[in-house]
Structure formats: C-alpha cells, structure tokens
C-alpha cells in the first residue's frame, strides 16, 4: 500500500541546544542547571558523562546542516539556549550568541531547511534557578523578556516558534520524582512551577502576537501520552481520567482554550496545593492561546485503579490517585524501558480533532533510542538500523490514517537528527539518523535510517 502525505508536509527532526551544541563554557555562555548539577553530582549521569561537550554542533553546524539536507530534511527544530543568549538570565545580550544563532539560521535557510525554534528545553539558567526558577514570578518575567528578545533578533527569518518543550517534564522530574535538578519532592511546589510555566508561555505568546511577524506562528510542544485504562470498570476509568488531567490536560487545556480543567483544579485544591496566582495573570493565560501545537509521542500511559492506599507519611504524589498498569505482552523498547504502541498517535490526533477544535499540529518528536548500536554496523561502516525504519513506518501508518480521517497534521519530526546527549541518560541510547562517534572526534556517519528518510521525504510518503 502507498502512504502519501499532504503537500508541503514537514519532514525533519528535532533536537535542542543543550543536547547538541556543546561549547558549554565558551564565548560568554554561563551555566544552566544541567552544568551545575553535573558539577555537584556527576554520578547522576550515565557513565558520568556531562553536558559540557555534547555533540559539538557549535563547531560543526555547517557539516550538520549539509547532512540534514542529505537526509531529506525540509525543516528542523532546535532551541536557543537562554544561558547562551542572556547568560545572566536578565540583562546583557551576548553578541557571540547572537552571531552563532544567526549563522545557524542563515545556513539552514541557505539549504532550504526551515528553522523551527524552541525557547526552553529543560534548561533554566543557573542564575535564574538561584532566584527561585519557575517558583518565582520574577523569573517568569525574565523568561518573557528573553522570548521577546529572540523574536526581535531572529523573527525576520524564523517563522515557527515554540515557547517550551514538554513543560510537564521539569515539573515532574525536577519537583516530584527526583530525576532532574533541583531534585525537589513537593506537589505544591510542583504545581507552582507548572502554573508559572503556563503563565511564562502565555506572556511569550502575547509578546509574539504583538510583534505581528508576517507568516509567524507560535506554539508549544507537549508530550501527549494518552492514558489508557486497564478496563472499562468505572474505577479504572476514573484513574485514567485523573492521570489524563494531571499529565496531559494540565498544559493542553490552558494553551489551547485559555483555561485549566475545573476537575484538575479541584484535585489540586483537595490536596492543598493550589499555586499563588492573580486574576490579571489568569487573564493573560485566557487571552493568549497558541497558533500551532507540537506533539511529542513516545509511549502510552496505562493506568488502573489503586490497589493499596499510600503510606500516610509519604509526600503526596499523583500516583496516590491511580496505579500505573503493565499490560501483559506489551511491545517494549527494552533499552529505554518504554512501551511501543503505535496506535496512540492516531488516538492523540483524533482527540485533537474532536475535542480541541482540530487545532493545526505536527508530530514534533517520536523516535527510538537503542543502546549499543555499533553492533549493527555493516562492512561499509554504516549502522543498519532497520528497527528504526520499522518504528517510523509503523507510527506513520497510524498518522496517515488520522490525516485521512480529517486530523489537521502538518508534519513529522523524528527525535533526532544525530545521536545526542540525553540528560541523565547521556549517550546511553542513540536516537539519530546520523551516528556520532564520540571516540573519533564526533565523526558523523549517516545510518541506514538517514538514507531511508531522504526517500521518505522526497516521495512525501512510502510504500509498504
Ligand atoms: C524527550 C525530550 C528530548 C529527548 C527525548 C528522548 O522527552 O524532549 O529532549 O531527550 O525525550 O528521551 P530520553 O533522552 O529520555 O531517552
């Protein structure tokens, strides 16, 4: 069968500044929370590999953009590092950073790779974290100023902007589950960070729309992970509904409809965790909704009713209201420990069609991280990652079906273009269309998936 996608479909990939640029301490950049955390707790990172050098994009961007073209990209997302552009978080703009991002953007445009720019990918400048991070209302304003600075500097050439990548992740990883710095475990502080992130987003949208950039669009990138109930038993359905409210609709509703779901607010109130807010700020959220949505999808969430009550002395967690559920015989990516469930991409698209006014969206991340890929190297030195090609195809089939049924999807970006540094997992799992050899001066080699991706993009689809 032939799977053809709509005209001008975006084929490309996503990455982020902190995961690819390297050059962490040159040309005026100052530390983000990642540099600081690595300094104080290097053992928290796989094989003790930190964020200082990542994949050397800062120096090799020209070669990389040529490889983007070679692998069929018509678009590519990365992020501007706040800690590079405004090293102290507020105040002076770093001219060397402006020069670097200008060169990257111009090189992409010269190669017909459209730049999609994100403004925050888990990377709070350390100076801002010291002022309270997103618990602080002042840091919210500092972020809005940073966003406005970016639109003014680069908005003449960058048309697709995103305020945050997966804003729920710093909330859950940094303020609930002890997975990211600042390793706080506190539901109330987590809701304050989530609320302030939504407000920071809305202020950036407001600044963007005020500038009236021709053909400009602004959005946010959310990891929408459907919550599937174990069964149709009302207790399981309720558990899934709660998980959906906390992990999806907490951001999806305010950014598309301007309001937080009433039953989510109720849950937060019941657990005495309402954030501090003002009516003026709620009005900013209400009046500044997005033009386009990016959807990251990796794995489904499966949920069942709670089996046992939580320990009365344990800090409150969302999981006190539901249990995660392991479906028997689920298909797994064992390296990342994530279930592979392709149909969810269709369910997300149909949910956006039916419950979110069919908002324009694209798949902004989807991908498969695999450990030890060099064992798949062939005699010519190329990694034959057929599992990655199969993974992409099987997701695209479901996306295609959703588009045929009227969902408003404009593109597909893989995570990621070249192997990159993945936070605490460092270089454990590789996701790239292009291999990066860390033992050989960051040498780049296109994988089988990279060659296949070019055909996919040229044909605007594939046969299977
Ligand atoms: C997403 C992030 C990316 C990337 C990806 C892969 O959640 O937006 O930055 O890291 O996941 O996941 P991981 O790095 O955890 O393997």
CATH class: Alpha Beta
Q: In CATH, what is the homologous superfamily?
A: Glycosidases
How many discrete domains?
1
Structural class by helix and strand composition: alpha/beta
CATH architecture: Alpha-Beta Barrel
Biggest beta-sheet profile = 8 strands, parallel, barrel
N- to C-terminal distance: 5 Å
Radius of gyration, in angstroms, nearest whole number? 21 Å
Low-pLDDT parts are none
| Proportion of residues in β-strands | 15-25%
Strands of the largest sheet, in order across it?
Answer: 2-3-4-5-6-8-13-15
* CATH overall fold name: TIM Barrel
Count the helices. How many? Answer: 15
Give the overall shape, derived from the CA principal axes. Answer: globular
Helical content (DSSP H or I, runs of 4+): 40-55%
Mean pLDDT across every amino acid position: 98
Bound compounds:
6-O-phosphono-beta-D-galactopyranose
């Amino acid at each position: 069968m032939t799977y053809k996608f709509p005209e001008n479909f975006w084929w490309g990939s996503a990455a982020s500044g902190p995961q690819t640029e390297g050059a962490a301490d040159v040309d005026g950049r100052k530390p983000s929370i990642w540099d600081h955390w690595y300094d104080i707790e290097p053992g928290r990172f796989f094989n003790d590999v930190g964020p200082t050098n990542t994949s050397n994009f800062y120096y090799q961007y020209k070669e990389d953009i040529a490889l983007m073209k070679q692998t069929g990209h018509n678009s590519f997302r990365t992020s501007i590092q706040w800690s590079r552009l405004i090293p102290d978080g507020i105040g002076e703009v770093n001219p060397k950073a402006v020069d670097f991002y200008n060169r990257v953007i111009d090189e992409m445009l010269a190669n017909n790779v459209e730049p999609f720019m994100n403004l925050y990918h888990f990377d709070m400048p350390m100076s801002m974290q010291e002022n309270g991070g997103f618990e602080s209302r002042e840091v919210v304003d500092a972020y809005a100023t940073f966003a406005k600075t970016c639109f003014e500097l680069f908005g003449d050439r960058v048309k697709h902007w995103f305020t945050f990548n997966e804003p729920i992740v710093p909330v859950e990883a940094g303020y609930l589950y002890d997975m990211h710095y600042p390793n706080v475990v506190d539901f109330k502080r987590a809701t304050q960070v989530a609320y302030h992130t939504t407000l920071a987003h809305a202020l950036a949208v407001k600044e963007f729309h005020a500038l009236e950039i021709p053909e400009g669009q602004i959005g946010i990138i959310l990891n929408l992970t459907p919550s599937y109930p174990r069964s149709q038993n009302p207790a399981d359905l309720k558990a899934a509904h709660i998980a959906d409210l906390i992990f999806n609709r907490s951001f999806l509703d305010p950014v598309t409809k301007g309001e937080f779901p009433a039953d989510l607010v109720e849950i937060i109130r019941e657990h005495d965790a309402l954030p501090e807010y003002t009516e003026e700020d709620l009005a900013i959220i209400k009046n500044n909704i997005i033009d386009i949505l990016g959807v990251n999808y990796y794995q489904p969430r499966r949920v069942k009713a709670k089996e046992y009550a939580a320990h009365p002395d344990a800090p409150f967690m969302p999981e006190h209201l539901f249990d995660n559920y392991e479906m028997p015989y689920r298909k797994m990516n064992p390296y990342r420990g994530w279930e592979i469930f392709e149909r969810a991409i269709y369910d997300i698209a149909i949910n956006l069609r039916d419950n979110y006014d069919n908002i324009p969206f694209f798949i902004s991340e989807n991908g498969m991280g695999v450990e030890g890929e060099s064992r798949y190297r062939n005699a010519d030195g190329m990694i034959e990652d057929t599992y990655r090609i199969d993974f992409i195809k099987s997701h695209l089939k479901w996306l295609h079906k959703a588009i045929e049924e009227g969902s408003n999807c404009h593109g597909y970006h893989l995570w990621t273009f070249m192997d990159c540094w993945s936070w605490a997992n460092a270089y454990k799992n590789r996701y790239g269309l292009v291999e990066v050899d860390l033992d050989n001066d960051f040498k780049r080699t296109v994988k089988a998936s990279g060659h296949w991706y070019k055909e996919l993009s040229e044909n605007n689809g594939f046969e299977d």
